[in-house]
Amino acid sequence: LLQHHGGARVDIYEKLPVPFGLVRFGVAPDHPEVKNVINAFTQTARSERCAYYGNVTVGRDVAVAELRQAYHAVVLSYGAEDNRVLGIPGENLSGVYSARAFVGWYNGLPENRGLKPDLSCETALIVGHGNVALDIARILLSPLHLLRKTDITDCSLAALACSKVKRVWLVGRRGPLQVAFTIKELREMINLPGARPVLNPADFTGLENAVKDAPRPRKRLTELMIKTALEKPGEKTVEMQVAAEQAAAPREWGLKFQRSPQEVLPTADGRRVRGVRMALTRLEGSGDSAKAIPTGDVEELECGLVLSSIGYRSLPLDPAAVPTAGVDSLPLCARVGLYCSGWVKRGPTGVIITTMNDSFDTAHSVLEDLQAGVLDVSSSREGFGAVESILRSRGVRPVSFSDWEKIDAAEVARGKAAGKPREKIVDPQEMLQLIGH
Ligand code: NAP
């Protein structure tokens, strides 16, 4: 918007004091290169025509209707901050966590800082075959010295140092041709030092033929799984050293297919998880749209830790102004000037570049509406001036981008001593104190 409209001003509202959302709190700490998009955000936020207001919860501190009165256009871009639930008995037992909470915990998301996951068991089970599932498996099994150099929080590093987890099963309800993770992330897992992949060759019988005409990414991904499943430790020629190390690896991980969790089983005292009962499934149909149908057979798998990694979901932010069904369900006249982009619009899929492109599309729609006269900008709107008085009357003090830069500097300084890029501050009160709020 700023680039294509010389007169536009953009204010960005954020619930937490600190910016960057999933880039800070979702992207794995050992993937720093993925976080480079922070530089683009920072450059934009520093523009004279852009302002950042953190520590403002839209829907509570200021209503969407109030924002719509203050601005010519409002874009909802708040992602998917909740997780889907399995909806099976035992899901609330101690030792069962949502991937979202677990990822939030190791990434310093304030609401998950007190999670204290119990890592005292040897076997963990992750439900789901997506990239988040692989992220978690990798964090659970990574050698500590690799994590120490990242911005993972100190307290999760300490918990991982005492972790007894040495085996991680990733369980999917469909087959190898339907996994949702991508090849780069799988390869990283396969090459993880000190952890051995355990794939059952029988799961891959006949698949080479089945993927012959599949799109290239699916074909390559399947071929990598087949190669890994068939390769005996020590057989690799190019990667002999890795193979030798892996044969002796103290930790292991594996993919289990066509198993749909039915119940999380409790220990005898009924307090903790001791395993998961899974319905075996057969596939109806083929390719991406194949459906998992229970065969009637079940299997129990023992584990002391269950992580449910079956995707994220958006929460309604201000049901009075935006129906749960989304902006598009509003009548046309009520929709003028209200836009959405990213996961809140398209659902929780795709990587950062997908979301960036989607936001460019949204900006394009705003500019088109402006040009076509759909957006009436003939009278000026007060923008933050109007919102500021609302916030003041409600006792809310926003955090500016330069405030964030002070928090940022403090985090970087704290990390330096430990050789980390930063030590994240996990308590919002501490952040606010630091900037004198
Ligand atoms: P995802 O890619 O949608 O994967 C969700 C997984 O959960 C799928 O395997 C799905 O299986 C399974 N699932 C859903 N409901 C289930 C149920 N009721 N029972 C059993 N299994 C169920 O979601 P995600 O892993 O949360 O990732 C979200 C997005 O972020 C993805 O686009 C991902 O690529 C991206 N991401 C990327 C990276 C990276 O690039 N390194 C890292 C993290 C996340 P079905 O297919 O059978 O539904």
From TrEMBL:
| Primary site of residence | mitochondrion
Q: Enzyme class, one word?
A: oxidoreductase
List the molecular function annotations (GO) for this entry.
oxidoreductase activity
Look up the domain of life of the source. Answer: Eukaryota
What is the required cofactor set for this protein? FAD
Q: Where does FAD bind?
A: E14, L22, V58, W343, G350, V351, I352
Give the record's GO biological process terms. Answer: cholesterol metabolic process
Q: In its keyword annotation, does this UniProt entry include Mitochondrion? A: yes
Subcellular location field: Mitochondrion
As recorded in UniProt, its EC number(s) are 1.18.1.6
Claim: Lipid biosynthesis is one of the keywords in the record: no
GO CC terms, sorted: mitochondrion
* Pathway assignment: Steroid metabolism; cholesterol metabolism
**Binding-site positions, NADP(+):** H129, G130, N131, V132, R173, R174, E185, G350
Q: What is this protein called?
A: NADPH:adrenodoxin oxidoreductase, mitochondrial
Organism (species): Buceros rhinoceros silvestris
